[in-house]
Every structure is written in structure tokens, then in C-alpha cells.
From TrEMBL:
S-adenosyl-L-methionine binds at residues 48-50, 91, 142-144. This is 7-carboxy-7-deazaguanine synthase. It is an enzyme of class 4 (lyase). One of its GO terms (molecular function) is 4 iron, 4 sulfur cluster binding. Keywords: 4Fe-4S, Iron, Iron-sulfur, Lyase, Magnesium, Metal-binding, Queuosine biosynthesis, S-adenosyl-L-methionine. CDD domains: Radical_SAM. Belongs to the radical SAM superfamily. 7-carboxy-7-deazaguanine synthase family. GO terms for biological process: tRNA queuosine(34) biosynthetic process. Its cofactor is [4Fe-4S] cluster; S-adenosyl-L-methionine; Mg(2+). SUPFAM superfamilies: Radical SAM enzymes. Homodimer. Substrate binds at residues 23-25, 38, 89. [4Fe-4S] cluster binds at residues 42, 46, 49.
Amino acid sequence: MKPPTVPAPDRDLVVNETFGPTFQGEGPSTGRYAHFIRLFGCHLSCTWCDTPHTHDPTRYDLTAEQRILSIDDILSWLAAAPVDLLVITGGEPMLQPRVLERLLLAIRDRSLATDIEIEIETSGTIPPTDLLTAAATRFNVSPKLAHSGLRRHQRIRPAVLRHLAGTGKAVWKFVVQEIDDLDEVQELTEAYDLHPVWIMPEGTDSSTVLTRMRLLAEPVLSRRWHLSPRLHTLLWENDRGR
């Protein structure tokens, strides 16, 4: 039997999948042409998680769901089909900070990628390092609400939220199921000075997403927040790699 591949410290990323070109489906860059790197592993387990294949051993063979990619592998992939937006998502990207630092610095060092924007999607429970903060264009931070099934101390880390807010590079994307969830969003945004705020309907099929967007539209407008679709879900339902 072939032994499992072991990632080299600070040189290899543990990845679930890479895909693109596609569109960024959420938040302030919705609709932009982009590539995605979905990293493997998450320390949270939301009841409605749309990427359980990155971390849930009860439903997936996690050995089959992970790949080891070197920084050079990823740079070659990006060079083959250049884009001006790279989205690093998960799972939870902040679980691999050191090699992520090296990747972002390597991308910045490549002359063909000097203008690339890099968005990192995170739950806001692990602070980014100084190097990641300097190299990233934006953090799309998605603090989890009570309907995630997580205890508050698991999902809300005040010091981390304040740190991310202080970077000046964070936007705040809250996954919402019903109108009453907006009161919890209001409490968090006021307590930790989180802005700008994007509200996104929870759902993994187009019917649910549209229904919830219509339900939330007027209440979100009244609070002067932004409303985000899940564009990839509206276009391709729950297909992976889209």
C-alpha cells in the first residue's frame, strides 16, 4: 500500500480543490471572473455547512478529499490561465497560515501576477498573521450566527473580530436564514464596529436562495446594509467546482 503523502512544512498546501475560471459568487466581488483555491480542514462544524467535504469524516472519505500541492504547483496553475482575482477559501484558510504566507508572497513576486487581487474567506475565529494581512487584498469574514449550531464562544472571538476590523481590509458577510437573524447581526456589528456589512441567504439550491433573498431584501435595505446572492448556486445549484 502506498503511504500517504505528507505535506512539507511551509512549502505545501493541503487543498480540497482548485477550480476556475468561474465567477465569485458572494460578497462585494460578486460576478467577477476568478479562480478559487479551496483549502482542506475546518475547526468549526456548522449545521448547514455547504462544504462538509473539507472536514466531515462522518459523511466523506477525507483521505480522498485532500490533495497536497506545492507552491510551485499553484503558481504554474495560475500562470496557465491568468486571472485578476484569486479567492482562497475553505474549510478555514487560517489553519495553514505559514504556507499561505509563502504562497501569497510568491504570487506577489511573480511579475505576471503583480495586479492580481487576493481575497481570503474566513470565519473570523483565527487572526491573520501580519504577513497575510499585508499580502491579501481583502478578507471576506463570515462570523457564524446562532443558527449555525455552534456555541457562542466557538463562533464569536471578540479579539479576532476587533483585529480584523482594525486591518481596514475586512468586509463582513453574514449567512442569514430568516429576518430575526438580522437582530443578531446588528448586535455583533455594533459591539465590534464591523462594516461594511453584507447579508447572504443560507441555501444550497437556487429556489431557497431566491426565496430568502426576497424575504430579506426590504429589511436589509432598511438597515442600509448590502445584500449578496449566492451567484454560483443560482447558476449551477450545488455543483462542486463552480
